[in-house]
Target: CREG-like beta-barrel domain-containing protein
Amino acid sequence: MLRCTPSLLCIMLALAAGAQAARVNLRGLSMANDEELVVGFPRPPHDQHALMARWLVHQTSWGVLSTLDRDTGEPMGGVLSHSDGSRHDASGRLFFYMSPMDELTQNIVAHANCTFTVSEDQIHTSTDPTTSTSSSSLPAYRPCAGLDPEEPPCARATLLGHLAPVPPAEQPRAQQALFARHPRMADWPADHHFTFYELHVSSLHLLSWYGGMALVEGADYYAARPEGQPQLMR
Ligand SMILES: *[C@@H]1O[C@H](CO)[C@@H](O)[C@H](O)[C@H]1NC(C)=O
Model:
């Protein structure tokens, strides 16, 4: 049984100070302004469309949800944070934490079909697939650096499906995924009644290279498995 003794406290404080120093170092060495961008999976080849979509969903932390206005039926989009798992767990399941005070949530309650779009341009650093290790002497690899977000090699995916509340038995899973990537969510006000939602992907549109959009079935998206181990990124 671990007891919190003064010496243990000292060790914890030292570790915390070390982690803080590492973060400062990380910021100084790379373009990363988000200390979450530390561990990632290698970028898949652009022609492996289901895998690329899985990679994009996992490496990004937010996207744009497109809904239909509950009153007028007109399009309405908005920024929404998502997570498919911790940095070590790329499950592909898209979890969200939504408040009924948000117009997007109200639209979803009225009409659950929606799309969710993510762009690789959001990813500040990633591992270069041509190098097996990310040595601190290598420059950060940024596939979208120098590209316009609309240019095809800067990958993006629009996922189509319906958003549904996560059933009680699955809520710990959703919470674990979201709070690992969005720790501030744990402190969001209780009176905003945030609820876990999941996007059930029926199909998706992916652009990751020249030659037009690829269409991927939801079943193929969920069946794809990100390859390799999570690695340290800078
Ligand atoms: C939602 O999408 C599904 C298929 O993706 C479709 O069968 C269904 O009719 C849609 N629902 C509405 C209300 O449009």
Observations:
- Residues 1-37, 126-139 have pLDDT under 50 and may be disordered.
- The chain has two domains: 8-37, 41-227.
- Helices lie at 6-29, 49-59, 103-110, 171-181, 218-223.
